[in-house]
UniProtKB/TrEMBL annotation:
Domain Rho-GAP: 57-242
Gene3D superfamilies linked to this entry: Rho GTPase activation protein (1.10.555.10)
This protein's GO CC annotations: cytoplasm
GO biological process, one term: small GTPase-mediated signal transduction
Coiled coil: none
Single GO MF annotation: GTPase activator activity
InterPro entries to which the protein is assigned, alphabetical: Rho_GTPase_activation_prot (IPR008936), RhoGAP_dom (IPR000198)
Organism name: Lingula anatina
Protein name per the record: Rho GTPase-activating protein 1-like
């Protein structure tokens, strides 16, 4: 993958999770100043969220606007489609998709339009699911839980499971808990087909971890390793951790 500017990485990861040297950031800023016009404000920056909006709004907002349904419609549609058609696809969730097409589809979902995922490449719903998580105003694991999750790495595996279960049950908002549980249950199904799709629990943790957990401030590479390790724990011990 090649990008011209650091901000282009935001389509794939939270760049705040990478400790980028200050000289690199300064050079990037100079390139943008030299070669790119200042971006215009978008409609989403100036207008309130649509009642049908699903990308870039809180889980609570989506629930309130969709009759109390906890699982956002776009998440449910993507997961159910991938359950039926994507479990055995090699490299599912590791492959990218046309960024312009993804933005178009996000806009359609936000406007409440009906979309037939069968008309698109199988990687489209996979990317949409990751982008939904990435574009939440706050990570599904919440900013408040971030330092506590980072501290788990110092514990042995059994203690990690006990403490993680407690954090999930007592400190994660209800909407976050059930959406996370729904998505992770599906991810365990993907991992169960690793002999066909090559997506082991570790590979899936690397792909999903930075989209589930990030900090308010720039994190180190060590933190990213801990994020992926915790995400793998969620996948490997799903049944023990999600008991509600």
């Amino acid at each position: 993958m090649y990008v011209n500017y650091l901000h282009e990485l935001r389509k794939y990861i939270h760049i705040d999770q990478i400790n980028i040297p200050e000289r690199v950031r300064e050079h990037d800023a100079q390139l943008i100043e030299k070669h790119q016009p200042r971006p215009a404000r978008t409609a989403s920056q100036d207008k309130p969220a649509l009642d049908t909006q699903q990308f870039g709004v809180t889980l609570k907002f989506i629930k309130e606007q969709h009759g109390g349904e906890v699982i956002p419609p776009v998440v449910k549609q993507c997961v159910e489609f991938l359950k039926e058609h994507g479990l055995e696809v090699e490299g599912i969730f590791r492959r990218s998709a046309n960024a312009h097409l993804i933005k178009e589809m996000q806009q359609k979902f936000n406007e409440g339009q009906e979309i037939d995922l069968a008309e698109y490449d199988i990687n489209i719903p996979a990317v949409l699911l990751k982008s939904f998580l990435r574009e939440l105003p706050e990570p599904i694991m919440t900013f408040e839980l971030y330092p506590k999750l980072m501290n788990l790495h110092a514990l042995n595996k059994d203690a990690q499971i006990v403490e993680a279960q407690k954090l999930l049950l007592t400190e994660l908002p209800e909407e976050n808990y059930f959406v996370l549980k729904y998505i992770l249950e599906f991810i365990t199904w993907v991992a169960a087909k690793a002999d066909l799709n090559m997506m082991t629990a570790l590979n899936l943790a690397i792909v999903f971890g930075p989209n589930l957990i990030w900090s308010r401030n720039q994190a180190s590479i060590a933190s990213l390793t801990q994020i992926n390790s915790f995400t793998k724990l969620l996948i490997d011990h799903f049944e023990e951790l999600f008991t509600k």
